[in-house]
Each structure stands twice: as C-alpha cells, then as structure tokens.
C-alpha cells in the first residue's frame, strides 16, 4: 500500500492501540511490524485467521506470561558458544510456555474448527524433559545447584570443608592467649574474598600477614597455621 495512504489512515496510531493488547514485548514488536496488504487472497486468509483467533479466545484464553527474547541465545548456540545461566533459564521458560500452549490448544478441542491457527500451534516445540533438567540444576540466574553434576557436588563439598578448616584456624587465633590481645574485634569477616580478622593498629607489626583492608582504627589479616596470608 502506498505510504501516503498509510499516513492518511493514521496507521501508526492503529498499531499503537493494537500493541496495548499485547502481553509480551515480542508481541508488541510483531504488531509494529505489521503492514497492510492489497492482495485479495492474502487479505481473505488473514481475515480467516483473525476469525479463528477470535473464536478461540472466546472459548477460553491461554495463561501467558512474558516470553523472553531468545534470538541472541539461539545465535550463541548455533556458534557453539557458552550460554549464561540466565540465557538457559530463558530458553527453558520458552519451552515451558510452548508446552503449556500446546496443551491449551489440543486438549478437548475440535481443531478442525481452527485449520489456520492449528498450523501455528503445531509448530511449537515442547520438551518437558529439558525444562525439568534446567529447573533441577539451576536455582537462579547466578546459582547452579550442587546436584547439577557429580563433579560440581564434589568440588563444593571440598570447598565447604576447606572453609570450615579455615574458620577453625581463625577461631583458634582469636581465642589463643598469644594473639587474642592483638585482636580488635572477636569476629571473622571477609575482605577481598578472604577470611580475615581485625587487628589493632598498634599491634600491626606484631602479627605476620598481609593487610587486606584498612580503616581509621583497624587492619585486617588472614590467619593460617604458620601465620597470616
């Protein structure tokens, strides 16, 4: 259609109003990409498509939450790149939504009434097994579950054991008769990803170790069996 007529019809305003009915950002993007057609066959097809969609929505509406845009993640997969946990969760969300939509459309419904709409639902790919694996292995976009792999579980057990050993040594330092007088506060904290204890400034030279942080009244060092690190 001629651009001049599109402007006279205020077509952009029509798309704006239409987009307000979209639940997802992807739907809004699709709305703004719509163009009028002057092809009779195409117009008839689109009208039939709209009639089927209206009829389907009158019967019952699907429960759709926001669907993430996974275009970038799919390109990363095609290039054999590593995905972030957030990207994996988004892919799982799309698969979960696809599974829900297929159940919505094909459960106790005469699909012969919706030949055009059926062509869209039939293309949806659903894989509950993948979704379950992702949900079992990823707690959130920053955290993998210990059960994600046997190796990861073993590493984290070793890490927790090592942390407990470090804390035991630091507690021994805090409560020892030799060093307790040097300690500013009877606490163990973390500085620069290291477990540290606060040392009084006047005793800084009395304790071997590295200073990891300084305030107006304290230094921090990490204790180990033969001193501080």
Helices and strands in order:
Layout: H1 3-8, H2 11-19, H3 25-32, H4 40-59, H5 71-78, H6 85-106, H7 115-121, H8 128-137, E1 138-140, E2 143-144, H9 150-175, E3 189-191, E4 194-200, E5 218-221, E6 223-224, E7 227-228
Antiparallel strand pairs: 1-2, 3-4, 4-5, 6-7
Q: What does this protein look like?
A:
It is a single chain. With about 230 residues, the chain is mostly helical. The chain folds into two domains: about 65-150, no CATH class; about 150-229. Helix content is about 50%, strand content about 10%. The protein contains nine helices and seven strands; from the N terminus they run H-H-H-H-H-H-H-H-E-E-H-E-E-E-E-E. The protein has helices at about 5-10, 10-20, 25-30, 40-60, 70-80, 85-105, 115-120, 130-135, 150-175; strands at about 140, 145, 190, 195-200, 220, 225, 225-229. The chain has a three-stranded antiparallel β-sheet, covered by helices on one side. Strand 1 and strand 2 form a beta hairpin. Helix 2 packs antiparallel against helix 3 (about 25-30) and helix 6 runs antiparallel to helix 8 (about 130-135). It is elongated and about 95 Å long. The N and C termini lie far apart (about 75 Å).
What are the low-pLDDT stretches, counting only 5+ consecutive residues below 50? 222-229
Radius of gyration: 31 Å
Q: What characterizes the major β-sheet?
A: 3 strands, antiparallel
Principal-axes shape call? elongated
- The structural class is mainly alpha
Strands in their spatial order, largest beta sheet: 3-4-5
Number of helices: 9
pLDDT averaged residue by residue? 86
Domains (count)? 2
Question: Residue share in helices?
Answer: 40-55%
Strand fraction equals: 5-15%
H/E element order: HHHHHHHHEEHEEEEE
The first-to-last residue Cα distance is 74 Å
Number of strands: 7
């Amino acid at each position: 259609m001629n651009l001049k007529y599109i402007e006279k019809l205020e077509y952009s305003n029509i798309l704006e109003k239409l987009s307000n009915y979209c639940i997802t950002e992807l739907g809004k993007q699709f709305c703004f990409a719509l163009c009028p057609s002057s092809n009779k066959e195409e117009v008839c097809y689109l009208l039939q498509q709209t009639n089927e969609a209206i009829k389907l929505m009158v019967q019952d509406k699907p429960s759709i939450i926001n669907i993430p845009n996974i275009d970038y993640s799919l390109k990363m997969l095609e290039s054999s790149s590593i995905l972030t946990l957030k990207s994996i969760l988004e892919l799982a969300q799309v698969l979960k939504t696809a599974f829900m939509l297929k159940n919505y459309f094909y459960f106790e419904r005469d699909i012969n009434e919706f030949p055009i709409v059926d062509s869209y639902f039939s293309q949806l790919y659903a894989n509950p097994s993948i979704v379950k694996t992702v949900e079992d292995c990823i707690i959130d976009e920053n955290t993998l579950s210990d059960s994600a792999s046997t190796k990861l579980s073993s590493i984290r057990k070793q890490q927790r054991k090592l942390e407990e050993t470090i804390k035991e040594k630091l507690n021994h330092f805090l409560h020892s008769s030799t060093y307790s007088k040097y300690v500013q506060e009877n606490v163990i904290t973390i500085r620069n990803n290291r477990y540290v204890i606060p040392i009084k400034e006047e005793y800084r030279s009395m304790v071997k170790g590295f200073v990891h942080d300084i305030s107006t009244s304290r230094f921090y060092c990490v204790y180990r069996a033969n001193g501080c690190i």
